[in-house]
Amino acid sequence: APDLIICDESQRIKNPRAAQSKALHRLGDRARYKLILSGTPVSNSPLDLWSQYRFLNPFVFGTSYFQFEKKHAVMGGPTINGKPRKLVGYRDLDGIMERAYSVASRATKADALDLPEKTFENRPVPLSPTEMRAYRQMQHESLVWLGAQEVTAQNVLTRMLRLQQITGGFLKPDEGDGKTQQLGTSKLDALRDIVEDYVLEEGRKLVVFFRFKAEGRAICQMLDEVLKVPQGRPPAYGFIDGSIKQVEREGAVKRFQTSPDSRVFVTNIDTGGLGITLHAASCEVFYSLNFNYAAYAQALDRVHRIGQRHPCHYIHLVAPGTIDEHVLAALEAKQDMAVSLVDNQWKRIFEGG
Question: What's the pTM?
């Protein structure tokens, strides 16, 4: 049996029902010493801590997730077989944190590292008339659809995704062949300007985050046009998403970090926002955002980490009067969008801007 097991990015085992988590629990039971490391141990709920601590020290929160949830989760809303099915709050959060800190220590970057400052820019990108018409139509259709459903956070978030796709320039029909239609290039044109300024004129490297597959394809096509390379040479950018094999991801990251020929790194937030170092660049552009604050915070840290010598600049492409503003406001408040959708606030997204 191993003497010591270190679990880095331990939030990846936060789901107690996942096979990966269960395997780590079993392995941890055999080790004499264990250590977990995470910048975001609580990404969605305080209940995220149980599985991580089940690996680290099962005496802190016990070995039964059912008992832990029963003690600390407040359930309500509609019932199934007489039992409420919706998580509406938590009990004894102070007790959870007191026990968590009994075997933990917390250090901020400011405490531990001498890193350069961060600056943020929210760059307005007005939608084209075609994009805006599609956006308003989707708002109307979403209100009608939600009016005919039981309104749950998941239903609301699903319709919000449709609005967000449109601000990125794309529409995927509800029916028919399901092919994604490109409505316009407003954000793509704004990104082209940034690439020309930062990369071509100033000679700096750039990281671009996107959310949807169609956006990633369009961004790469634009970069092929702007960052021309001789035929037979690899493109002047790196690209990874969930479809890229791990060995290819590592190669793309290494090339971006070490080669002057790789000038832009394009990745979706879920794949490239965690566990990789991209500090050859000091500027990140968010073409689009996802709804999870922990994923966003991790993405910010891809360039702002040990070895970075330059101030880090972050640009959000934001379509005024759209869902982009609501998502960014939630993330700036360090909230997930699902948490911010309380007291019917979601209606403002579909009724107005």
Answer: 0.76
- At residue 256, what is the residue type? F
Structural domains of the chain, with CATH: 4-106 (no CATH), 118-125+185-340 (3.40.50.300), 129-181+344-351 (no CATH)
Closest among 211, 220, 235, 227 to 292, alpha carbons compared: 211
Give the DSSP H/E element, type plus range, for residue 201.
none
Q: Tell whether the torsion through CA atoms of 23, 25, 28 and 30 is positive or negative.
A: negative
218 HSE (CA, 13 A, CB side): 26
Contacts of 301 (CB under 8 A, 6+ apart): 39
- Alpha carbon distance 83, 312 (integer Å): 49
Given a contact cutoff of 8 angstroms between Cβ atoms, the answer to whether 337 and 330 are in contact is: yes
The mean pLDDT values, 10 residues at a time, for the chain of 353 residues are 91 93 94 91 87 95 93 78 71 90 80 80 97 95 83 83 96 74 96 97 96 96 94 93 92 96 95 88 96 90 92 97 93 80 72 69
